Amino acid sequence: MKILMKGNEAIGEGAIRAGCRYFFGYPITPQSELPAYLAEKFPSIGGVFLQAESEISAINMVYGASCAGVRVMTSSSSPGISLKQEGISYLAAAELPCLIVNVMRGGPGLGTIQPSQSDYFQATKGGGHGDYHLIVLAPHSVQEMVDLTYLAFDLADQYRNPAMILADGILGQMMEAVELKEYASEIPHKNWAVGKSQGRKRNIITSIYIDPKVLEQHNLRLQAKYKIIKAHEERAEEWMKEDAEIIIAAYGTVARIAKSVIKKAREKGIKAGLIRPITLWPFPDKYFQDLGKIKRILTVELSSGQMVEDVRLAVNGRIPVEFYGRMGGMVPSIEEILEQIEKINSQIERVKL
Amino acid sequence: MQEDLIIAGFGGQGIMLIGQLLVYSALEENKNVLWMPSYGPETRGGFANCTVIISNEEIGSPIVAHPQSMIIMNLPSLDRFEDELIPQGLMIVNDSLINRKIKREDINFYLIPATEIADNLGNAKAANMVDLGAYLKIKNVVDFTLTEKTLEKFFANNSSLIELNKKALERGAQEIAKETLKP
User: Which of A187, A203, A246, B123 is most buried per CB count within 10 Å?
Assistant: First the structure.
């Protein structure tokens, strides 16, 4: 049975069903419905909801709870996620699983509360200090707000790595029908967690390695883990790609707009299709390998052009990769993107028969 | 088939509510639905609008720049959205709160004195239901009776509100039957 939920609430329900019982955060628009949802639901199911005095405090509470081996999450929006970066780096270094939700808004600075995708670099390239990666998942519907929340917790535990849901204000605010599928995975036993140590060796969780030789070894181990994640977890949706000459590369809300654009383009006889990255890190390079009939790629983002760099790396100069974006909370219309597609279509050289 | 609709008025008029009433009803009919509130530094009495999309297919863009239909509940909303309606689009206007003429000549509009009608029914706040009733009478996107049933669920704790809002819905639909609506 399908029910209607706001995107932010859907993440909350997904987290509950995935066994998360600990939330630490600080309110910020446009994600506040998520903590509000958990604040209402957690007390009756034995969960701990705590509104901390700041984002920095909240992320360090996540660190503590994760050390103890429980499923834990935090959520915020762009400026709040910036504040959490030091803690996120520590979580990655200490290999602590958790879920961090970023419902992006327009930046830089305090910016606006309207939707944006300008935290892509921050989410996928580091954000905090040091050589590390988060597993970054990008939903494009309220259904995926639930499904990818399940997946994020699973991948975080499987790889002992923080995972992030990277959404935007539109996905957080809009309401769609969702099917709350049964959460089928088993939460793994965490024999590395701290706590009562009777009968076993003492577990130590840390991110400090004073000896550079030891720290380099720790880094090499992390990099080896990232390589395994990269090899196994690339995910993307291909939509009308089979015969496409022009591909839109877009994620999240923009991918939704792109689907409408592609339908209109096809009505005009333009063979357009979509590659929608679902994992932003690891970036789904393999979906850009077999280009088939594709002659051009147009990357569309709510930013000045961030993911386009990864698209270009994946394509590696084989075909031109163009970019179109809006910033500061502005969202491109279907017509606006269609115009870009028509322009590109007119530039493609075709062999005349 | 896809219907997209923008409902606009001021905070407190129940703009979001009638949008939700539509999508909850359409979901009962197994249609794909999307409801998107305007969000921003909103205040009671300030702008409020929402987008409703009902479709038999997968819904693409959640943002609708040029909707097929509009329910306009006050003057600032008319000023803001009048130019955005598609040609031949449908506009239901709460005539009680709008003291100017519709500029567009290429649209189908219906002037409903919704606030006045609701006031006569006992509560001016039900004006949203009057306009929704009119809209449903013209655009049969969801079944009228089904919408009434959804309404009963929405106000399950308050039977007097169910009565009032049902009456308002029906009065709105009756207005459409009149031929004298268009200037």
Answer: A246
